[in-house]
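Narrative of accomplishments. A recurring question from our advisory board has been how the design workflow behaves on a single, concrete structure rather than in aggregate. To address it, we present the structure tokens for one chain from the evaluation set, followed by the sequence designed for it. No filtering or post-editing was applied between the two.
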């Protein structure tokens, strides 16, 4: 399995789930989790590009 694929996929799942919570009463927590997920997507993408 390619290095960086797991963080990218996990970050995508976390970002999608946090985006679905943005309309609820937990908006502040959802925003924090959204940023955490986006960071994983970016770091996973960097690993995928670095280790071709």
């Amino acid at each position: 399995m390619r290095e960086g694929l797991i963080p990218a996929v996990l970050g995508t799942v976390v970002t999608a789930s946090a985006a679905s919570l943005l309309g609820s009463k937990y908006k502040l927590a959802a925003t924090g989790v959204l940023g955490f997920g986006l960071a994983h997507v970016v770091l996973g993408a960097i690993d995928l590009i670095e280790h071709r």
